[in-house]
Amino acid sequence: MKRLFLLLATLLIAGCAQQAGKKFYMLTASGPTPSGGGVSIGVGPITLAEYIDRSNLVVQQGPNQLAVAEDHRWAGDLSGSIARVMATNLGRELGTGNVRTYPWQRDNEIRYQVTLDIRQLHSTEDGQAVIEAGWRAYSLPERTLKASRTYVDSEPLKSDGYDAMVAAESILLERLAESIAAKLR
Prior knowledge:
Elements: H1 2-20, E1 23-25, E2 41-48, E3 56-62, E4 65-74, H2 78-94, E5 99-101, E6 112-124, E7 128-139, E8 144-156, H3 162-184
Parallel strand pairs: 1-4, 2-5, 2-6, 3-6
Antiparallel strand pairs: 3-4, 6-7, 7-8
Helix pairs in contact: 2-3
């Protein structure tokens, strides 16, 4: 019994030591979602380019080269985080507290569904965060296409480091939400 306890304690300590050097980051919305009702919006599903569909942050180091930050990771699922941030940002932009992320129970409870295809979301070696996202907005429950666009933008990092990178990517998602909201008004 003592050997089993010693083995479990050793494994626990080793696991904690491996996590000690890692830092975790999350995207943030530009402000709170308004409370109360309003037009109902559903965000999702979100698809991610394969190179960013991972737990690690990614930096472009040249025209055809990427670096994966081993000790700098997303605090959770990136597509879920993008959906949460976009739902909050769209709710704020459209003045509604009635926002949901995919999957939801019934389409007849949603007026607009916004789907996203994130093709690029990373920083570059010259200090820019970049985004390229295709988006579609559907009227529900009839599922008619209301608008479809490709959004491309960049934001300079305010300083060096991964904190600045994630902050700039959060700003890009805010501007993407502003662009989508302008077509839904």
